[in-house]
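Design review, sub-item: ligand-bound model
Attendees: FS, YL, KQ
YL presented the inputs for the adenosine-5'-triphosphate complex:
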Amino acid sequence: MSLLDALQRSGVLRPVDLALAQALQRIDGDIADSALAAAALASHAVAQGHAAFDPAAAGELVDASIDWPDAAEWRATLAACSMVDRPDADAASDESTPLVLEDGRVYLRRYREYERRLAAALARLCVATDGAPHADVDALHARLFPAGEGDDAQARAARRALDSTVMLVTGGPGTGKTTTIARLLVLLAAQARARGKPVPRFALAAPTGRAADRMAGGVRRVAESLRAAGIDAELCDALPTQASTLHRLLGLVPGRPQARFDRVQPLKVDVLVVDEASMVDLPLMCKLVEALPDGARLLLLGDRDQLPSVEAGDVLAALVDACDAPAAANAPLAGRRVHLDRGYRQTDDLVLEPVADAVRRGDAAAALSALRVGGGGLHYHEDALDPLAASTREALLAPWRGLRHCSEPREALALVNRARLLTALRDGPQGASQLNARIELALAGTQREPYFHGRLLMVTENSARHGLFNGDVGVCLPDVHGAPIAWFDGPDAPRAFHPGALPAHSGAFATTVHKAQGSEFDIVLLQLPAADTRVLTRELIYTGLTRARTQLHVLGPASAIEAALGRHARRISGLARRLGAA
Ligand SMILES: Nc1ncnc2c1ncn2[C@@H]1O[C@H](COP(=O)(O)OP(=O)(O)OP(=O)(O)O)[C@@H](O)[C@H]1O
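KQ shared the predicted structure:
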């Protein structure tokens, strides 16, 4: 049996992966079977979040017992194939070849080009900044970061960012990324003034609408507190008050690959701050960085320990590696990262640090011990496999009962992020979909209306027409005649939609951890699967538990934690290497 047949039989390939292999065979009837299989696997790899397929790691990509070819021989066959280009590292690949072989990895040409173009665009932005330090700016820096650069990573981050055009600020939740960047923007406004230049055009953006709103809210709060502390009002007024999604910023419309702003028609922005950078995939990051004008500053904020983007990439991890690479001519990002590791959240909030830290380190014994000790809002329900069972049922349902008595849209929307059940899986008894249906039944009974009072909905596709985006969550309330209306937050006021007119959506009491990225909830119940699965990774657990603000319930066996912490959500990508990392 050929390798392609074996893959087809295993059922892992999507029709689109097979269609690519079949198209190549039609063009070249003599093409080697292993090259066809590599094409299908390169396409499959992108759907699994990789930028390319690595013949030496085929077993990690495909969960089936397949007799894989020797990686070196496989690559040699590919190198000799007419459908595979092998361009020099900085050169564009041949548009007539669908595949590229580079550093032993097999790319769909488009993804190799995204990597190459992104690396080139970043290198273009990494230029030396002009001008000497200014006494007024130094004085303001000392006032905004009184702890000083010796003791305070936030102070160091701001100082470094004043002198860099591209900068990464990484850190877990509550380590002050937003606070630091807002203060930095005040410093940049002061720097421009000291140099007799106009206030820079600032833009704030994030991959999701919720993350953008949270960021804008954080920056507005910092502006208020700085005004109250007597910082020059003109500088505080320079801070942006709104943030947009990356799609909106770039003018990307669903179904159209071309953005409104690009290399030819750049964004009218001098300083762009991107939050939740771990969620940004390779094509989007490429389009974003290419659309920045020469001389612009780019500040990326994110948490490397979180799940990588669902779509191809793991861009943030690659950029972190590139920043941490030794300084060299081919390493434009070297030294351009500051990591914030001190948590500043209120002490009466959830005490998450010991467990989050152990999970980040992959120390299962320490994570389990921290979970079992509990306290400070942390509860471990070891061996609980069903969140609707008696021991956790009330913790799960109580936060949503209030929604059933709430008739004011603003009041109801304020409760939308009160609680969430997060799960690793989409399907099956422990999957988001079935759990959601059971929660709806428990809350509203068997006679419930499809859009019952208090039902949470999540939009599952982008719809520019509605101004609703994948992941937006709303709530159903009856109108004065008792007819259901779905309410979603809007920039100025809640927005009402007839449920029948909504874009694709699902229930939202339970969602996958992936869908919860970029959001936070007061109460999180994190259900771990009974049986081990490949989606269960260290990053998934870390992302799930760091969504909680005041109360976290972890449900599931110790074995699930042990299995998860031993597995990374590793993504195949050549971006770090392209940017000078080993
Ligand atoms: N240097 C500091 N001193 C005191 N409090 C601080 C400091 N830095 C941040 N905080 C406070 O810590 C909290 C979290 O800060 P911030 O929102 O900036 O963190 P973040 O890393 O952006 O978090 P998130 O992951 O939620 O985006 C805020 O209440 C902020 O006021």
